[in-house]
Predict the structure.
Amino acid sequence: MRLLIAAWAATRTVVLLCVFKVITVPGPDVTSDVSVIYQGWYRVLSTGVFPSDDVTWQYPPAAALAILSPALLPFLEYPAAFYVLACAADAAAFGLLLHASRRGAGREGSRGRAGAWVWVAGVPLLGPTVYARYDLMVTAVAVAALLALSRGPRTAGALAAFGALLKVWPALLLVGTPRGRVTRAVWCAAATAALVLTAVFAAAMPGALDFLTHQRDRGTEVESVGALVFHVARHFGWEGRVLLNYGSVEFLGPYVDVVSAAALLCTAAAFGWLLRWRLRAVEWTASTAADAAFAAVLLFTVTSRVISPQYMVWLVGLAAVSVTLRTGRQGPPAVLVVVATGVTLLEFPLNFGSVVASDALGITLLVVRNGLLVAAAVLSCARLWRTTVTEPLRRAEPAAGRVGGDGPGEGAGAPRREGGLLPR
């Protein structure tokens, strides 16, 4: 325990020294998002309206709370207050993972401190970016929601809704909730919380829903999986451009709309797979909701038109929760995500110039990082399917034979019977 806490304190000290520029990190200044963009939004939001005229504002209404949060520390300048609060969110998630590991020690619920170690190791691998974006705050809410599920389904649902109104993706936490009473409680609480919070923001602050139309003309972001097509095509005469567009560096030009449309189709296919999994799953364990959330966010990350560096902290947080739970089978994909996070630091900010230039180093780093993420997504989905569909059905076959005799069709129906492998 002491080693774990010491490791967290040491690594976070280094991250703080980086964002306060005591330690200089090569590449673009990642803190400018806080000192320029976030602080600019803060000034607008402080007047009681959303920055509707700014197309880089692409966030749901509760994101305003994250941008306004430095007002809680009025004795610090805006950037310093933001970094301190990001560190506090980091500490909160770490504390929740530690508490979960201690609470479940020796029982089915937890496998010890493995998840806390994933968090301690994974977060600082992203470098100063992790404290210079509000995604860490969102991830802390997601971690809290998943860990609350076993004891307080309604609390988990409300937290998931709040997270979704901070940055959409925590809505995927609802994918793997156990069918029946738990799902009804979680989904009803989430829907109620989302409707109430959205109504409050819409009534109190004009422009709360304008973010919905601010991404219509996006290109393909240079770090995404689909962008590899254009990184290679540039060496064969492709005539597109790399521009700062909608707040990120994107490819614009011929066939970008085709690749972007293909990414959307892949996302739809991923959603279809998740729906099929949910319909086919016959057994839930203590970790199934976390495992499914991890798999879902991996799928939607690798199929997205955009993979910003800070997205990695989402995956690290979900991997940490899944690994914390004893019944989880997501250890190997969690390791791949942690390694991919380290490679992300190499491509941004350390070698982002090479990525933008599509040179050999930049392409290699993207192939490695995105390849790790795709492998993690495939492995995570395969393990989720095996533990909730394949293995329970295989175990049910001999049991059905013993109970129901040798009559035709007995084994196939066994997992669905009352008292069988119905999800808990």
About this structure: The longest strand covers residues 241-245. The two ends are 33 Å apart (CA to CA). Residues 105-110, 405-424 have pLDDT under 50 and may be disordered.
